[in-house]
Amino acid sequence: MQYAKIIGSGSFLPPRVVDNNELAAELASRNVETSHEWIFTRTGISQRHLADNGVTTSQLATKAAQAAIADAGINASDLDLIILATSTPDYVFPSTACLVQANIGAKGGAAFDVQAVCSGFVYALATADAFVRAGRAKTALVIGAEVFSSILDWSDRSTCVLFGDGAGAVVLQASSEPGILSAQLNADGSQMGVLNAAGNVSHGKVVGDPFLRMDGQAVFKLAVTVLSESAKQVSEQAGISLSNIDWLVPHQANLRIINFLGRKLGVPESKVVVTVDKHANTSAASVPLALDAARRDGRIKPGQHVLMQGVGGGFTWGSVLARM
Ligand SMILES: CC(C)(COP(=O)(O)OP(=O)(O)OC[C@H]1O[C@@H](n2cnc3c(N)ncnc32)[C@H](O)[C@@H]1OP(=O)(O)O)[C@@H](O)C(=O)NCCC(=O)NCCS
Question: 188 with 161, same domain?
Answer without folding.
Answer: no
